[in-house]
Every structure is written in structure tokens, then in C-alpha cells.
Amino acid sequence: MPPESGAEAHFRALESLYDSAPINRLFRSRLEILDEGVARIAFEIETQHHHAAGAAHGTSYFKMMDDAAFYAANSLVTDRFLLTTAFNLLFTRPIVAGPVVAEGRWVSGRRRVLVAEARLVGPDGEEAARGTGTFMRSRIPLSSLKGYAAAAQ
């Protein structure tokens, strides 16, 4: 099978970058960039993610939704790492345990600022949260990041 090139190579390099982030040692998860502007993160809510009342703490919701929206947006940008400048989050229902999916989708913008949305779907298939983020291009070249560069070669 020939090596991937173009958009597919960029998507795989972004997935590798995600895997290389130290924070993801705390949150076992798997990123898939499905298409330009579309990302999905599968993860498991376990008791270690709970707040004192026995359901997932909001940090789990935010982290996965921010990442899904971020990678959906960064799938459109091949030269620079994006930075989250704002993220609005609406919690609609608690998640106690089980497999969860964060779905990210690019909404608008391609130059300096990009907007993407995300939603969290619980193990019952129901939406548990939704949010919108804004992301701007940084001065950090993607090619300078080890997790990205190793996969892009």
C-alpha cells in the first residue's frame, strides 16, 4: 500500500500529535479525523473522572469537546498549530460511566480565526453536552512538533 499523502497524511499526523500529548496519559482516548473539518474522539468515563456526586466532572467534558473541535479546525490548517481562544460549553445531562464520543465539526473561518463546534454523546446515544470554540493560528509550525513531524515523514 503506498504511503498516504496530502490531506490523509495531514490527518494521520494530527492523530499522532494528539497521541503524543502528555495530557492524554490521564484520559485514555482515540482521535479519528474522518474528513476535512470533522473529528471524533472516543473515550471511556470511569470513576476516576467523577466529581464528589458520582458523575463525570466537567473537565472531562471540556477536554474532549475542546480537542474534538480543535482537531476538526486544525484539519483545515496544514502549516500551523492552532490555539483555543474561547470555548462555550453547555452541559445538558450527566454521564456516569461508559463509552463516550466527542464529535467535532468545523463551522467557519479559514484564515486567522476558525470556529468549530462539538457535542458529547453518552453511552445511551443521547447528547450530554455541546459547545462552540474559536481557534487561531499560532506561530508554531506543525512540522516543529515531534508528534506531528514523525508521522508526516
Automatic annotation (TrEMBL):
Check the record and name the Gene3D superfamilies matching this protein. Hotdog Thioesterase (3.10.129.10)
Show the CDD domains listed in the entry.
Answer: PaaI_thioesterase
One protein family per Pfam? 4HBT
- What molecular function does GO assign, one term? acyl-CoA hydrolase activity
The alphabetized UniProt keywords are: Hydrolase
Q: Which residues form the Thioesterase domain?
A: 54-128
Its name, as the record gives it, is: Hotdog fold thioesterase
Write down the species: Sphingomonas horti
